[in-house]
Amino acid sequence: MSTVLKTFVAYLKRPALYPELGRKIIKNTVSRRSPFKGKAKTNSWAASIAVSQKEAVARLFSMNTDHFRSTYADILEKASLKENECPITMGGPGALELIYYACEFTKAQHVLETGVAYGWSSLAILLSLQKRNGTLYSSDMPYLAQDGDHYVGYVVPENLTKYWQLFRFADRESLPKIFKKASSFDVFHYDSDKSYHGRMWAYQKMYKRLKPGAVFISDDIGDNSAYQDFCAKKNIETTVVEYNGKYIGVFIK
User: Fold this and answer.
1) 4 close to 28: Cβ distance less than 8 angstroms
2) Concatenated DSSP letters of 67-101
3) Interatomic CA distance for residues 138 and 123, integer angstroms
4) Distance (Å, rounded) from C-alpha 182 to C-alpha 102?
């Protein structure tokens, strides 16, 4: 069975995901070009101002990233082993230091992320939140084509899951559910729907729920111009981080 057909059948078995199925059909037929709107413009802009993760953390949070890897060496090593043994393929670790120190800088109690995969970003957030008995709210679609639901967040140690609430829907269904649990957030990490309109929808919803002084992080901003356009519209002065050949946007509200 092809991946597309397998995914479609999996959607049909889950009525809670029908709204997202409808959006995907439209996105892959009527709106096929819109996900990449402004991509060339934003990549040129991002490349012209990008800094390293280390420089961004120092500039924004006045913190040094050097201690993260040594402090959590054993946990990170075990997480890597878990990823390697996982039978399905998902997204790997991103800018973990940026995410961790954003939580440390804000002394975060409530954090929202969209996109989980193996759970690397979740792990970085939870390592900080555990110090303050905080809560991470995560939105992530089931991995329908790979039948890998139970592998989402696979690298997160069991002892950290008590600080974590995972919502297994598309963002447009997950976020309203999360907002009933928490009305404001200290850190927001976006790594889900990469389309222009998907980003703009989520950015707008989240921005107004961030506390003053909260940190907003968005991965893969070079996919289209949504992040650049959002910052321009809100007159936001943003930092751009170059990480493994991609760009991450980050600012303090």
Assistant:
1) no
2) HHHHHTHHHHHHHHHHHHH-SS-------HHHHHH
3) 12
4) 19
Beta strand residue intervals within 191-233, DSSP E: 210-218
Q: Which residue has the tokens 């084509």?
A: 145
The beta strands (E) that lie in the chain are given as 110-114, 135-139, 164-167, 185-190, 210-218, 239-243, 246-252
Q: Which of 99, 108, 56, 96 is nearest to 213 (CA)?
A: 108
Q: How many CA atoms lie within 13 A of 165 on its CB side?
A: 15
Say if residues 152 and 167 touch (Cβ distance below 8 Å): no
Sequence-separated (6 or more) residues with CB below 8 Å from residue 238: 227, 231, 249, 250, 251
Residue 128 · residue 118 · CB < 8 Å: no
Helix (H, G, I), strand (E, B) or coil at 34: helix
173-192 residue pLDDT tens: 999 999 999 999 999 999 99
pTM for the whole structure: 0.88
pLDDT tens per residue across span 33-61: 567 899 999 999 999 999 999 999 999 99
Task: For residue 182, give both structure tokens.
Answer: 């928490």
Token pair of 193, please?
A: 């729907």
User: CA 51 to CA 242: how far, in whole Å?
Assistant: 6
Query: Residues of 111-138 as b/e, b for ≥16 C-beta within 10 angstroms?
Result: bbbbbbbbbbbbbbbbbbbeeeebbbbb
Residue 101 tokens read as 């120190």
How far is the C-alpha of 218 from the C-alpha of 203, rounded, in Å?
Answer: 9
